[in-house]
Design a protein that fits this description.
eight-stranded mixed β-sheet, alpha/beta, binds pyridoxal-5'-phosphate, Aspartate Aminotransferase, domain 2, 2 domains, Aspartate Aminotransferase, domain 1, three-stranded antiparallel β-sheet, about 40% helix, about 425 residues
Length: about 425
């Protein structure tokens, strides 16, 4: 089929009528399909079930630095768990704080801590009047949610294929002392699956912020989440900031949410000595220690980094065909029509698609009508406001494969319908 933009109005009308028939036929099936949230499906969750039997009543509950993992204590986590995360992140174990089950929770707490206590000898963020965060977009909606919760103003920074537009980042960060932070998902970004180029990482490490207390929130949620034979590589941010003397500028986060269980994994952050000292001031009051049995379970189950990497191959086996199916379907159905463009990630959890400008909300609404729930249009932008109303995040991991195929068929029909509605 030729490009919609090159078609006569009569041909477009005929195409629309045919699409509408298919749409109504799907609608009549009363489907309930969901491609909204990036969570693992049950096949993926089952991969880690053996971890549940690693601990038994006969287990030796001592662990290097801990006489009994069932008891209170060890605020920064078991040494063995800190070592495992240090190896995943490529940092020294002393830099790692192992927390509860959610890295998002640790990000929230980190911002709360900066709000209350401040850093680098500056006043707490809450006492500095209006403060701002840079938000590369499309981005992770929950980052924007946390920022909004604290009343921090969000400034959108465009994403390029190499990561955030660093010309914009450098200009803003070096000129405005009210800018206190930036959200980054440096590998297989949510939702575009973009990995920051070496140059981008180096430019981050070399930032010269106007605010001494500016911090980079380096959310490495998909650090080892490759899905094919051509994985991306990411420079180690802490290696780079060591070279530029900017060690205090970065908080790095990750978790096993997409390695073992999102509801019962282990999260960790890495930070400089000075930053850890500030966080501990808060954490000391917040808890006597996180779930060390879960840390022990993870450490015993994986053994070491190689064990984690081998485990990720099992996830890849489940995810690769799903992503291929989504991408093949987009190519086949939309490839020639000039109505959308999309990313082809080598890892992570999402495919990001830009439909005809002004059509994203309409596509999401049409899909809903036909029984397919998508992430809300605009969710990938600060304040839920996609200025072009064009970006939609597809999450291929959760639905069973047959449902995913059907949801994608419906999605493609809706993208085409919305595009034709715009054209005629
Ligand atoms: C970029 C990113 N960061 C963090 C999270 C949540 O991580 P956690 O489960 O460790 O809180 C997600 C979940 O989708 C994510 O996409």
């Amino acid at each position: 089929m030729s490009k919609y933009t090159a078609m006569e109005k009569s041909a477009l009308n005929a195409e629309y009528a045919s699409l509408k028939d298919s749409f109504e036929a799907y609608k009549a099936q009363g489907l309930k399909l969901n491609m909204a949230r990036g969570k693992p499906g049950s096949e993926q969750l089952n991969i880690s079930n053996d971890m549940l039997t690693v601990l038994t009543p006969d287990t030796d509950f001592t662990s290097d630095d801990c006489p009994d993992c069932r008891n209170y204590g060890n605020l920064t986590g078991l040494d063995s768990a800190r070592k495992l995360f240090a190896d995943i992140l490529g940092v020294a174990p002393e830099m790692v704080f192992v927390g509860g089950n959610s890295s998002l929770n640790m990000m929230f707490d980190t911002i709360a801590c900066m709000m209350e206590l401040g850093n680098s000898g500056e006043k707490p963020w809450k006492d500095q009047g209006k403060i701002k965060f840079l938000c590369p977009a499309p981005g992770y909606d929950r980052h924007f949610g946390v920022t909004g919760y604290f009343g921090i103003e969000m400034i959108t920074v465009p994403m390029t294929k190499n990561g955030p537009d660093m010309d914009v980042v450098e200009q803003l960060v070096s000129s405005d002392p009210a800018i206190k932070g930036i959200w980054c998902v440096p590998k297989y970004s949510n939702p575009q699956g973009i990995t920051y180029s070496d140059e981008t990482v180096k430019r981050f490490a070399s930032l010269k912020p106007a605010a001494k207390d500016f911090r980079i929130m380096w959310d490495n949620a998909y650090i080892i989440h490759d899905i094919n034979d051509t994985p991306d590589t990411l420079l180690n941010i802490f290696d780079e900031v060591k070279k530029t003397g900017n060690e205090d500028m970065v908080f790095e986060f990750c978790s096993t949410s997409k390695i073992t269980f999102p509801g019962a994994g282990v999260a960790a952050l890495a930070a400089s000595e000075a930053n850890l000292a500030i966080l501990k001031k808060r954490y000391n009051f917040q808890t006597i220690g996180y779930d060390k049995l879960n840390m022990l379970r993870h450490v015993k189950y994986f053994g070491n980094l190689e064990g984690v990497i081998a485990h990720m191959q099992k996830h890849r086996a489940v995810l690769e065909p799903r992503f291929n199916m989504v991408l093949d379907m987009l190519d086949k159905e939309l490839g020639d029509l000039d109505v959308a463009s999309w990313t082809k990630p080598n890892g992570g959890y999402f495919v990001s698609i830009d439909v005809t400008e002004g059509c994203a909300k309409r596509v999401v609404a049409l899909c809903k009508e036909a029984g397919v729930v998508l992430t809300g249009a605009g969710a990938t932008f600060p304040y839920g406001n996609d200025p072009k109303d064009s970006n939609i995040r597809l999450a291929p991991t959760y639905p069973p494969v047959e449902e995913l195929a059907k949801a994608m068929e419906i999605f493609c029909i809706c993208v085409k319908m919305a595009a034709i509605e715009k054209l005629i």
